[in-house]
Amino acid sequence: MINDIFKPRSCSSCINAALNVYSNNFKKIFKATWLYILLLSIVQGLSAFIASPIVDNASQAQGSIMPLLEMGAIFVAILLLAVRITSGVVVMLNEAPLMATMKKVLKANLLSIALYIIICMVACGVIVGVAQIGAIQKLPQTAQITIFALFGILL
What whole-number distance in Å separates Cα of residue 155 and Cα of residue 151? Predict the structure, then answer.
């Protein structure tokens, strides 16, 4: 019984099976997700449009919190649309209830965002700590560039 469930597979056969699922169900997946993907692209375009004045006015003490609130609202909209798109595809593949799947996908996305924030905080703390003790200045210039490039890739 267990041998029927768990079959040894190579990586290429798993990738081939996944590709077949998407290619065989492309019409169904496209029909179910095109509207949400269109909305997601519009909202992401709005985020770039709203973020440009924030970046331009970063040096000036403007005191207006409205662009930040708008960016927060757009971030939440992007998150919810991404959760809906992912959940829609997952529901088509495993036929689970949509709301239960959306809750699981939302939890996974929020966990990944939290982990990313923690990693960024640790990396920034390391960069500030290294810069404060001056240890980075004792290294050759190529090593300094390499270290900051690695932290840039991490972030």
Answer: 6
